[in-house]
């Protein structure tokens, strides 16, 4: 069997946050059909800029609308998938943005894409998020919101994965 064809995909997502009782809460999702928790993200549609796609995807997947405040990071990863019946390797780049919560409720999340949505204090979200690269994105968000890297490193426990 020969080398699988590689497809490149670019997505955008965000760390949606709100300040509550002196702490930073973030909104994370559990995609339908999985047991993992992650940051909301999705495909960039034709004609969309990454920050526009991030705001749209966050709204669709969390039921909450936010305002993009800053670029956080870009991550990439590889996985195997199916492209029109062909097994392919997919190299995915995801551009993440920091979004300040404006309005909405998790009950408005897309039920076909998302099984559950939760607002959690940032340290609890850090533990719950499955992927290390997304935990690093969340860490950068908290550092940006705190204004110092040192205070965030002390406040966010590392997940056991």
Quick summary:
This protein is 26% helix and 46% strand. The chain has 4 helices and 6 strands; from the N terminus they run E-E-E-H-E-E-E-H-H-H.
Secondary structure blueprint with pairings:
Blueprint: E1 6-20, E2 23-31, E3 41-43, H1 50-62, E4 64-83, E5 86-104, E6 114-121, H2 122-128, H3 132-146, H4 149-155
Based on the model shown, name its key terms.
alpha+beta; Nucleoside Triphosphate Pyrophosphohydrolase; disordered C terminus; single chain; 26% helix; 161 residues; six-stranded mixed sheet
Word description of this protein:
The chain is an alpha+beta fold and 161 residues long. The chain has a single domain, classed as Nucleoside Triphosphate Pyrophosphohydrolase, CATH 3.90.79. 26% of the residues lie in helices and 46% in strands. Strands 1, 2, 3, 4, 5 and 6 form a six-stranded mixed sheet that branches. β4 (64-83) and β5 (86-104) form a beta hairpin. α3 (132-146) packs across α4 (149-155). The radius of gyration is 16 Å and the shape is globular.
Say which CATH homologous superfamily is assigned. Answer: Nucleoside Triphosphate Pyrophosphohydrolase
Q: Report, as a whole number of angstroms, the end-to-end distance.
A: 33 Å
Q: Using the alpha-carbon principal axes, give the shape.
A: globular
Largest sheet: 6 strands, mixed
Low-confidence runs (pLDDT<50, min 5 residues)? 149-161
